[in-house]
């Protein structure tokens, strides 16, 4: 199980990597492992301003569908188009090529509400 130190984690199992005033968001290694084989990523919120805690899409695995929850407020600038043809990237590389959205961050202070890698590891019990 991978818990990179360069991202922050939400209790909904999303990760955030801040790069200046923008952030990349995806689901954690723990989440993709729990979901199993990802078959579809559905994000229809591109261009929308969403608040922390709002649903920005869904992720479908062979056995279930789960909502994707915004870990911080912002405008959805981009959806990872590679996931259209290769949703399994979320399984193979959840913190790299399997990122889901790129966001213009509204309030960087919200990052302080998210967990560090060690706190998230403890949260998951891994």
From TrEMBL:
The keyword Glycosyltransferase does not apply. The keyword Calcium does not apply. InterPro entries: 2-oxoA_DH_lipoyl-BS, Biotin_lipoyl, GCV_H, GCV_H/Fam206, GCV_H_sub, Single_hybrid_motif. It comes from the Bacteria. The modification N6-lipoyllysine is found at residue 63. Its cofactor is (R)-lipoate. CDD domains: GCS_H. PROSITE patterns: BIOTINYL_LIPOYL (PS50968), LIPOYL (PS00189). GO terms for cellular component: cytosol; glycine cleavage complex. Keywords: Lipoyl. It holds the Pfam family GCV_H. The glycine cleavage system catalyzes the degradation of glycine. The H protein shuttles the methylamine group of glycine from the P protein to the T protein. This is Glycine cleavage system H protein. It comes from Proteiniphilum acetatigenes.
